[in-house]
From TrEMBL:
SUPFAM superfamilies: P-loop containing nucleoside triphosphate hydrolases. It comes from the Bacteria. Pfam families: ABC_tran. Residues 3-224 form the ABC transporter domain. Keywords: ATP-binding, Nucleotide-binding, Transport. GO terms for molecular function: ATP binding; ATP hydrolysis activity. This is Iron complex transport system ATP-binding protein. It comes from Lentzea albida. InterPro entries: AAA+_ATPase, ABC_transporter-like_ATP-bd, ABC_transporter-like_CS, P-loop_NTPase. CDD domains: ABC_Iron-Siderophores_B12_Hemin (cd03214).
C-alpha cells in the first residue's frame, strides 16, 4: 500500500511535511522534539493536521473506512491499562478482522512466536519487563496483518539481538513500514529511504548513503560523525566524536 503525507502542518509543531512510502521501509530520524512522533500520529489518525493530508492508496486517512484492517501502529502511547494476559493483548490485533477462530488462533500463535514471546503468553502484560512489553505490542501489531505498519521507536527497551530481529522482521514483511528510529546506524542498515526532521521541517530525504553525511549530521544533531562502511554489508555506518558542537 502507498502512504502519501502531503504538505502536512500541525500548527507550531511540524510544517509542510511531504513524504511517500510504498512497500518499503521508510525511516524518519531527527533530534528530540523535531516532530517525528507528531508526523506519525497524523498517519495513524491520533492527530488531524491543520492543513495538508495523509493518503493511503489515494484515500485520506480520515475518510478511509476500516483503516484498522490495513494499518497497525506501535506508538509511544501504545499501552495496556488493564490486567490482560499476553495472549489476550495479541488477540486484540485480530479485532478489526472478521472472526475466524482457527485462523485467528494461528495468526496469534505465529505473532507470539515471531517476536519470541510465546513462552510469556499466559503472563500478565503488566508484569512484563519493558522489552518484553514492547515485543508483545509488536506481536499485537503483527497479528493485525497490516499492509501499512507505523512504528514509533520500535527498538525502545530492546536488547541488541531483539533490535536487529524486530527491524529485520519489519523488512521481511514486504509491507509499507514507516518508522521513527533514534539509532542512525540501525536506520542506515534497515531503511530503504530516510527522511530527516529538524525543528518540525523536513531537511533531507534520500537513501541512507545520501542522507547520513557528516555535514547534515553536524547541522542537525550538532555532533561530528565519520562515515565508515560496514565490513560485511557495505552499508554506511557512523562513528561519532565525543565532543558535541554548539
Ligand atoms: N499536544 C501537544 N501540545 C503542545 N506541544 C506538543 C504537543 N505534542 C507535541 N508537542 C511538542 O512538539 C514538539 C515535537 O514533538 P514530537 O513528539 O513530535 O517530537 P519527536 O521528534 O517525536 O521527539 P522525541 O525524539 O523526543 O520523541 C515537541 O517540542 C513537543 O513538546
Amino acid at each position: 500500500m502507498r502512504v502519501d503525507i502531503e504538505q502536512v502542518t500541525v500548527r507550531g509543531i511540524i510544517t509542510d511535511i511531504t513524504l511517500h512510502a510504498s512497500n518499503e521501509v521508510v525511516g524518519i530520524v531527527g533530534p528530540n522534539g523535531s516532530g517525528k512522533s507528531t508526523t506519525l500520529r497524523c498517519v495513524y489518525r491520533a492527530l488531524k493536521p491543520d492543513s495538508g493530508a495523509v493518503l493511503i492508496d489515494g484515500v485520506g486517512v480520515h475518510k478511509r473506512q476500516h483503516i484498522a484492517r490495513d494499518l497497525a501502529a506501535l506508538s509511544q502511547e501504545s499501552q495496556v491499562e488493564f490486567d490482560f494476559t499476553v495472549a489476550e493483548v495479541v488477540e486484540m490485533g485480530r479485532l478489526p478482522h472478521e472472526r475466524d477462530p482457527a485462523r485467528d488462533r494461528r495468526v496469534v500463535a505465529e505473532a507470539l512466536d515471531t517476536v519470541d514471546v510465546a513462552h510469556l503468553s499466559g503472563r500478565s502484560f503488566l508484569s512484563l519487563s519493558g522489552g518484553e512489553r514492547q515485543r508483545v505490542l509488536i506481536a499485537r501489531a503483527l497479528a493485525q496483518e497490516p499492509r501499512v505498519l507505523v512504528l514509533d521507536e520500535p527498538t525502545n527497551h530492546l536488547d541488541i539481538r531483539h533490535q536487529l530481529e524486530v527491524l529485520a522482521l519489519a523488512r521481511s514483511l514486504g509491507v509499507t513500514v514507516l518508522t521513527v528510529l533514534h539509532d542512525l546506524n540501525l536506520a542506515a542498515s534497515y531503511c530503504d529511504r530516510l527522511h530527516v526532521l529538524d525543528e518540525g521541517r523536513l531537511v533531507a530525504s534520500g537513501t541512507p548513503a545520501e542522507v547520513l553525511v557528516p555535514e547534515l549530521i553536524a547541522k542537525v544533531f550538532h555532533v561530528t560523525a565519520h562515515v565508515v562502511r560496514h565490513p560485511t554489508t557495505g552499508v554506511p555506518q557512523l562513528l561519532f566524536d565525543q565532543e558535541v558542537t554548539p
